[in-house]
Amino acid sequence: MPYAEAVALQEALVDTRRRGEAPDTLLLLEHPPVITLGRSAHRGNVLADDVRLEELGIEIHESGRGGDVTYHGPGQLVGYPILALVEGRRDAHAYLRDLEEALILTAADFGVRGRRIPGLTGVWVGDRKLAAIGVRIGAGWITSHGFALNVAGDLSGFETIVPCGLEGRRVTSLAETTGGRPAIPAVAAAAAARVAQVLGYSAVSSRSRSERLAIPEGDKLSS
After folding, report:
1. What is the predicted pLDDT for the residue at 222?
2. Is 148 among the residues known to form the active site?
């Protein structure tokens, strides 16, 4: 899904969630090559000029999420949780740690030992970044944006940026770490289950963008 389309979809879901007309939802998708600039982004962390980005077929977009610069592309699982955080969970830092925990568990499902690095948001394998996290929490404690987990894609797109503004830090993927090639649908299923587990939901799958989602009883996460 193109990045601009995904942003528009998130905005629509945030609006319907705020009005109580949709359940909490986790969007799981891949983007065509795109660089996004978070609210704390420094344009100097984009290393390629506009001509080079056009040659490479990489779009660039400003984003309403937190964080600096990141890259998305095929083979990377992107997750956008649209959640109404309830009393007791209205803590932005705790929410970031929850997403990290879900991704650490997801990586473990594929034999990869992810970890946190104190002071740095995301999930790491050694000193290489496996997953980036950048969220937005709006009025009514409704979340959007989310995480990007490198599964099996071409990592060369990251050479056009300073990932998350961290000089000297490289990225990795599940495929690079394991020597295999995990399938995106399998990783998406694992990620949905782990996000639901960590946040205390049960997950209900919906594969159609146009499918109408009724608000379920109790706490459920539609993915």
Report:
1. 58
2. no
